[in-house]
From TrEMBL:
Keywords: Signal. One of its GO terms (biological process) is alkanesulfonate transmembrane transport. This is ABC transporter substrate-binding protein. InterPro entries: SsuA/THI5 (IPR015168). It comes from Cereibacter changlensis JA139. GO terms for cellular component: periplasmic space. Coiled coil: none annotated. Belongs to the bacterial solute-binding protein SsuA/TauA family. Residues 33-235 form the SsuA/THI5-like domain. Residues 1-17 form the signal peptide. It is found in: Periplasm. SUPFAM superfamilies: Periplasmic binding protein-like II. PANTHER family: ALIPHATIC SULFONATES-BINDING PROTEIN-RELATED, TAURINE-BINDING PERIPLASMIC PROTEIN. It comes from the Bacteria.
Length: 316
């Protein structure tokens, strides 16, 4: 995603002196953060950004709601629950969209060529998460029923190897491990219909009295977006370095074939949040009235992003 470059009008550094605590963990999906950190774009914008790491986006979001951090990185799904329970936060940017969601099978357990092949199968996933939502939507759209079995994320691949389940719907971080473990027995189905969005949520203080800080923060990321677009190889080097070499730069660029990179805020995210919140409410996980676009829209605040990249905002 390319954005028009701009001259970011900064307030004096004293006005932006308070640190911004940013819940973020190095990962393959947000190269603009790695580039902004590596090139000093946050410092250049007059910001003191302090990184706080969490084991999951859900934990980062809980820290945000508890006032422990100012900005949190996560997949969009926890925000749907947060909106249903009327928490105080706002999604202020969508950093990337993952288009490679898949269902993984073991060839010894039968064919997995179309969603219809899921009928009657035992499918492992982690209930109450975005992968559970993804599986539910695939089954609903295909008009088939299956036995959905709950398992912890790290237990899904071993369960498939043992034959305890016929297929699994794990988080994307487990895809490569599943392919390696299964070898020639690996098969996958990419039915489409769901792309996780990797978003930034902020406190009401950041969208309110600290709006200038948030604008400068997103301005640094938009500036880094241009670098990622212009030189993906260099961006991959930055991401690999921040991940301690856990993923090689060449592998990252292969992964990005399934990632729509670039900071945006658009109506498809709103539609997804409404769909997820409706699913959560229908399952009774949260007791709430059925959500609508009108009830979810206030949780997307485009003020800061519109100030630095108006072309990246399309919520209408």
């Amino acid at each position: 995603m390319k954005h028009t470059l701009f001259a970011l009008a900064l307030l004096p550094s004293a006005a932006l002196a308070d640190p911004i605590s940013f819940a973020w963990t190095p990962n393959p999906q947000t190269p603009q953060v790695d580039v902004a950190l590596a090139k000093g774009y946050f410092t250049e914008a007059g910001l003191d950004v302090q990184i706080v790491t969490f084991a999951s986006g859900r934990e980062a979001f809980e820290a945000l709601l508890g006032g422990q951090v100012d900005v949190a990185f996560m997949a969009e799904f926890p925000a749907a629950t947060g909106a249903l329970t009327k928490q105080d936060f706002a999604i202020v940017a969508d950093l990337s969209r993952y288009t490679g969601s898949r269902i993984i099978g073991n060839t010894e357990q039968g064919a997995l060529a179309t969603p219809a092949d899921l009928a009657g199968k035992r499918i492992g996933t982690t209930l109450g998460t975005n992968v559970d939502y993804f599986l539910s939507e695939v089954l609903r759209t295909a008009g088939v029923e299956a036995e959905v079995i709950n398992a912890a994320p790290g237990d899904l691949v071993p369960a498939l190897l043992r034959g305890d389940v016929d297929a699994i719907v794990p988080f994307p971080t487990f895809y490569a491990g599943a392919a390696e473990a299964l070898g020639d027995k690996y098969q996958e189905l990419r039915p489409g219909g769901y792309a996780p969005h990797y978003v930034l949520a902020a406190t009401t203080a950041m969208t309110g009295e600290r709006g200038a800080d948030l604008t400068a923060f997103l301005g640094a990321l938009v500036k880094a977006d241009a670098d990622v677009s212009a030189d993906p190889a260099a961006a991959a080097e930055a991401v690999s370095a921040s991940m301690g070499g856990a993923v090689a730069p060449a592998e990252l660029q292969k992964m990005w074939a399934d990632v729509d990179l670039g900071t945006t805020l658009s109506a498809d995210l709103l539609d997804l949040l409404v769909s997820e919140a409706s699913w959560i409410a229908a399952k009774g996980v949260v007791k709430a009235d059925a959500p609508t676009a009108a009830t979810i829209a206030p949780y997307l605040d485009a003020t800061a992003l519109s100030a630095v990249a108006p072309e990246a905002v399309s919520l209408d």
